[in-house]
Amino acid sequence: MRPHTRALLHAVTLSALLGTVACGPSHRLGEYDFRDRTVSVVSEIPRRADVLTGPYFVGGITGDPVRDVLRAGARVYREVESRRLRERLESAATRIDVGHVLEGNTLERVARYLGAHAVGRDEEPDFLLELIVVEYGIDAESWNAAAHFYIEADATLLYAPTGEEIWRKEIDATERIGSAVFGPGRAVRDVVTAATLSDLTVEEIVSALESLADFSGRVITDELREDLRDARRR
Prior knowledge:
Helices cover 44% and strands 22% of the residues.
């Protein structure tokens, strides 16, 4: 590294550190006593999660007639399998309201971490977690790639009587789906793929959606728990 580049890097790093020290935490969790108070969740969550399996279809013309025929066959097979999966997804969606489960899981964890009592939103809680989920679901980049849970959301903890913002976090997280969700027989080398998803029963899809709700609630509340720990250490 050139001397002037190293000096510039040191200056930028020092400036960033000073800025962090000067600004301090971007939340006000340390200013409130949550013990024995009440908390509720109000949310905007898509009722149905997205289940995206990426580019199922192998596209493009290679110029090799044999290879192109094989690719066309793969596209037809995957199109049929994806259609069947969508039908089972529709059936599974009637058996579980993922948004409702996600909201309940989030409220339970938030109350536990704050040391507060979970109540319904109509009971005039002391604190209110506003949860806005932009999108969440299951994704795989290709037919044989590992599938992931994902969520993009915005979470804000408010002091309900005044609407003051205590804590806010933008959530953008993914997590590889492990074989434990469906059992070891459904994964190859502990990897759940789009191909795995295409072969799921309705009951297994319901289990996957329950796991998606659990993952989503966990990543949201883990952010709050980490900032609470930081506030309580001060």
